[in-house]
Amino acid sequence: QLQLVESGGGLVQPGESLRLSCGASGFTLDNYVIGWFRQVPGKEREGVSCIRNSDDSTYYTDSVKGRFTISRDNAKNTVYLQMNSLNAEDTAVYYCAAAGPIRWPTIQTPMTMCVISKQRYWGQGTQVTVSS
Length: 132
Description:
This protein has 132 residues and is mainly beta. It has one helix at 110-113; strands at 3-7, 10-12, 18-25, 33-39, 46-52, 57-60, 68-73, 78-83, 92-99, 121-122, 126-130.
């Protein structure tokens, strides 16, 4: 059974950091673009950061550039999102998702695949709250 499970969310104060984890079972992440999405009540779910595991290429939405870092650990079949300098606008439910499989050669970049319509699998979400 193909599954994605997120962990690492919680309550932090502005300026602090969190590290989210997305573990996969039933498939290997190497042939997928793995993304982190977030959703705030009243707003559409948006792509935050995505990584194409086969070559480690990445995409970040403008609002998190320089603060968030997406990475992978193939041995653990896990993708991480390191979130630094968090602010109240980062408060949301964060979801892990997988788009693919990617079949090479391809023009499917992390940017083009980091949209809701491209995702095949979703995790259950983890709450991130940034508040003093």
